[in-house]
Write a structure and sequence with these properties.
The chain is an all-alpha fold and 164 residues long. Helix content is 79%, strand content 2%. α1 packs antiparallel against α2, α1 packs parallel to α3 and α2 packs antiparallel against α3. The longest helix is centred in the last third of the chain and has 35 residues.
Length: 164
C-alpha cells in the first residue's frame, strides 16, 4: 500500500499513514502545551522562594530538596522543549514516524518529571510549614497517588481496551 492510499488502522479512522502521523504529532504538541503550563507554574513558584525572608531559615535538607526541585523543573522544561528541537532537526527529512515515536517517549519522561516535581514541591511545602514528618508523609502519599493515576490507570485502561 502506498502512503497516499487510505487505510484503516487500529483507530478505525480512514486516513493515510501521513495523516495519522500528522494527527498524532498535533495531539502530542497539545499535550506538551498542557504540561508546559504546569511546569512553568511550579518552576515560577520555586524561583520566587529564595527571595522570601523565611528562605534563610531553611535547614540543609530543605535547601537540598529545594535545589533538587529546581533541577527537576529545569530538566523537565528541557524535556518538554526537546520534541520541538527534534522537529527542527528532522524537518523535511521525511522522518515523521521517528519524530512522533521519539516525542511520545519524551512526553512520557516529561510526565514523570512533572510527577517528581509535584512530589518534591509538596514535600518541601509540607516540610517547611508542618515539619519533616508531614513533608515526608505528604511526598509519599502524593507519590503513591501519582503512580496510580499516571501509571496504573493508563496501563489498566490499555489492558481493558485490548481485551475488548
Amino acid at each position: 500500500m502506498s502512503d497516499v492510499e487510505d487505510f484503516t488502522g487500529k483507530t478505525g479512522r480512514k486516513e493515510t499513514r501521513e495523516e495519522q502521523l500528522d494527527r498524532n504529532w498535533a495531539e502530542l504538541l497539545q499535550e506538551l502545551r498542557v504540561l508546559q503550563t504546569g511546569v512553568q507554574i511550579l518552576a515560577g513558584f520555586l524561583l520566587t522562594l529564595p527571595f522570601q525572608q523565611r528562605f534563610e531559615s531553611l535547614d540543609g535538607f530543605q535547601v537540598a530538596l529545594y535545589l533538587v526541585n529546581v533541577v527537576i523543573a529545569s530538566l523537565t522544561t528541557a524535556l518538554i522543549l526537546l520534541p520541538v528541537s527534534v522537529h527542527r532537526r528532522l524537518f523535511r527529512q521525511r522522518l515523521k514516524a521517528t519524530l512522533v515515536s521519539s516525542a511520545d517517549t519524551i512526553t512520557k519522561l516529561a510526565l514523570a518529571g512533572i510527577g517528581m516535581l509535584s512530589v518534591g514541591t509538596a514535600s518541601l511545602v509540607f516540610d517547611v510549614t508542618l515539619g519533616r514528618t508531614a513533608g515526608l508523609t505528604a511526598g509519599g502519599v502524593l507519590l503513591a497517588v501519582l503512580v496510580i493515576l499516571l501509571v496504573y490507570v493508563p496501563v489498566r485502561l490499555n489492558r481493558q481496551a485490548a481485551g475488548d
